Amino acid sequence: MLSVLVASVAAFAAPRAVTPLMAAGSGDVQTIFTSCGDSTYILQRLDSITVNPYPVISGQPLNINATGLTTADVVTGAKVKVVAKLGFIPVLTKEIDVCTQPGISCPIPAGVNSINVAQDIPSITPAGNINVDITMTNGDGAKLACLTGKIQVVKA
Question: How far apart are CA 9 and CA 49, in angstroms?
């Protein structure tokens, strides 16, 4: 459901962001992600995220583009843990191998990088404002990212 979206976002996290990053999309409501990391995290800056369509439509394809700055390579074995809730009700708890996601090839070299991924969103995905908490570790165990945000999902 949201695994590719959050893997894409986590792949370019913003550990020292001062302001939330808004995701551009086809809808009027924006997705906001903020950092819960600190200066010890490898991924230093999230420059942009485009989520299309936005709001996310249950049962339809989703395209994500993310650009950001890393200070070290993201290597094989990098994992992202995703906890998504509709209010206080968990709708997804999952650990994802970042390097096996469609559109992502590891190692992702240090520096400014862009990734593009596409994912079909299952029709059983509930509508609403989904709270998403993301933590990511590199293949060597180093802290990569920590993000929190909301994703609006609507029914087709």
Answer: 7
Cα gap 106→140, rounded to integer Å = 13
pLDDT tens across 31-40, in order? Answer: 567 778 788 8
Task: Measure the CA–CA gap between 140 and 156, rounded to whole angstroms.
Answer: 41
Which H or E run includes 35? strand 31-35
Can you tell me the distance from the alpha carbon of 11 to that of 135, in angstroms, rounded to the nearest whole number? 10
Helical residues (DSSP H) of the chain, grouped into ranges: 3-10
DSSP SS3 for 6: helix
pLDDT digits (tens, 9 = 90+) for 63-104: 877 777 889 999 999 998 888 888 888 887 888 888 888 778
- pLDDT, the chain, mean: 77
Instruction: Supply φ then ψ for residue 100, to 5 degrees.
Output: -100, 5
